[in-house]
Amino acid sequence: MTSAEPAHLLTALRRRDYPLTWWPWRAMAYLATTVPIAGVLCLGLLVVGAPLIAAVNAVRQHGRPISLPLALFLAVAALAAVALAPFVSAAVAAVERSRLAVIDPRPLPARPWSGLAARYTTASAWREVAYTVWLGGVVPLAYWIYTLLVLIDLMLIAGPWLAHNGDRVVLIWSTADTPGEAVPYAVAAVLLLPVLWYGLGGLAAAQGAVARWLLGGPADGTALREVTRSRARLVDAYEAERRRIERDLHDGAQPRLTSLTLHLGMARLDVPEDSPAARPLAVAHDQAKGLMVMLRQIVHGIRPQSLTDLGLAGAVRELADESVVPVTVHADLDRPLPETVENTAYYVVAESLTNVARHAGATRADVRLTRTGDRLVVEVSDDGRGGADPARGSGLTGLADRVGAAGGRLLLASPDGGPTLVRVELPCR
After folding, report:
1. Domain that holds residue 234
2. Is 250 left (phi over 0), alpha (psi -120 to 50) or beta?
């Protein structure tokens, strides 16, 4: 059975059969096509960088100030480089995104042209500038070092033939006058050929990783804000649908079920106990009462009635009274809270107190509700055994997901031996 084809060069390098595949040749093609692009960019950087380095060296060595014409040239060149860099980098990034498919076929999102101002104000545009500078400054140096290593290795391999006519051959840190003296170096160089072959792929993979990191980086703040707004709209839509379901159950199904239960109860009173219909009627009456309790629990689970009647602080105190572990509630809420925030905070406290009762082995717990600025802070602590781990259950993970959907964050501190602290911060916008 043949193994699956690697998805990209970096995964191919981990395979034992890498030297015998097409991936080294693809890496070589990627590096070869990089040379002209990096060479042109390197020359462009030298136009600005070489005079600047020369001027700095002159000041350091001779203490002479920079002449006015040179200072004007450097200033104009620097301004021109900054002004043109976003446009040059746009062309370079477009070419690099298409070239990257040679070693990494995974799609890389393109950045559509979004106007002149966006080339100077968006993070993605300046990430492209950073990649262009890296491609023209760092990549040529890495290529030069690798090429030098290859030439040295080839020279060592050719050492026995170069020393054949009695000529002295310099082999790195020593010399060889005869082929016999050069043979050990040649053998070592031959053994290093696979290392250089892998190094070729490693160099290409590193360049591709930097290209993917800079050219396919995170979205701009505008896009992130739109994602946040979209999530907030989804949460609001969920809350509106939840309220509709609660209203329909409370105002529609629950009264009808209550009326049905009353009629069944009255019918039981009118039917003699020895009647054949008495037994089925009693069963139906009991099932209706059980269904009423279930429906009441469902309505309570959608939004607890205590939360509507008493507010968050009162509802949390009611939870504390019902807990099997003694709970102290400290509430400092001077203003009303959005309904979404109240619901999320209530379920955070309810789930945390449930975990305390079931798993913590605690003798007491504390709940703190504090509003600081535009954020509600909920803290639930206990003196239990600690060691709470989200990986061992879905409770804390689901709680974190619910808090994240409301735009907040959950922090957990639970060392072995306790105590445990669950802290949730929720925006109150």
Report:
1. 223-302
2. alpha
